[in-house]
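Support reply, case 0932

Customer input (verbatim):
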Amino acid sequence: MNRTDRLYAVVEELRAAAPRPRSARQLARKYEVSTRTIERDILALQGAGVPVYAETGRLGGYVIDPAFTLPPVNFTAPEMVAIAVSLARADGTPFAYAARSALRKVLAAAPAGQLAEAAEMMDRIRLIGIDRPASCGPGGATSLAPADGGARPDGAHPHGAHPNGAHRNGAHRNGADPDGAHPHGSHPCGAHPDTAHTESASRDGAHPAGKSAAKTASGQDRKPVPMAIQEAIATRHVLLIDYRDRQGVVTAREVEPVALAGTQAHWYLMGWCRLRNAARAFRMDRIVAAVDTGEPAPHRSYADLNVDIPHALVRVPDLAG
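Our regenerated output:
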C-alpha cells in the first residue's frame, strides 16, 4: 500500500472506531508498517487540517471526529473500465439498475481527461455471447479462435459450436483463428481455442531468438500478466508473452495487442502474432508471463483482425452503463 492510500485508510479506520481511540501500535500492525511511520502519517494528516488528536492513558491512542470525512477519491481510467465491464456482465440481475446508477455517479466525479482515457480503453473490449441467447457453444458459452491458428474466441461458431472442438467434415476455412487453431486456417466457423496441433507446437516450441518474457523481466520488474497486457493495450506497445498451449508447450510470442475479449468462460488477448504472422486470440489464463517491450505497435483495430464471429454475438460494453 502506498502512502496516499494508507493515509486515506488510516482516516477511515479512525472514523469507524470513533469515539474509541486506536493506538499507533494497532494501526502499525494493521497496515504492516512501523509505529514511527504511523506517527509521521498522523502528523501529516494533522498538518493537512484533519481533526486527529491524541488521547493519553493506558487505553489511549488517536481519535478523529466521526463526522469528518475525506473528499471523494477519483477512480483511474482502468478502474472505471473494470467497473463498467463488471456491470455489463451483471445485466439481468435485480441490481442492474442500481449498479448503473452507481457507475454514473463515479463517472460524474471523474476529470475529463480520465473519462476520455477510459472511453478509449472501453473501445478495445469485446464481450462475446454474454447476455445473448445461449445458442453458441456448450452451455451457451462462446469461444474465440485459438492462438495457434486464428483469431476466434471459445466457441463463437457462426452456425453453432462443435462439441469437444471436433471438426465438422474435417473442413477448414481461411481466416484468423485463436490460440491453438489449425495452422493453415481456422475451423469452419473459426478455430476453437485450446486445439493447437502437436505438429505446430513442436515446430514453434523454441523461444524465437532466445526471447522469453519470464527472462526479460524478473523479480520486482515483472508486473502481473493482466496489468502488463492492460498497459500495453493502452499505450499501443508490442508485448512479449510466454504462452502455454493445450499440450503444455510454451512458446514466446511478440504480439501487437488490439483488444480484450471476454466470453462466459474465458478472457482473451486478441492481436497480431508476429510468430504466426496472423491474427490470434490468446487465452489469458495460459499466458505465463508478459512484458511490455516499449516498441510502438502498428495501429490496428478490432475490425482489422477479421474475426469471423457473428455480429449479433459481439458487444462493446458501454462506459456509461
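We compared this against your earlier run and they match. Two observations from our side: Confidence is low (pLDDT under 50) at residues 132-144, 157-209. The radius of gyration is 24 Å. Please reopen the case if you see a mismatch on your end.
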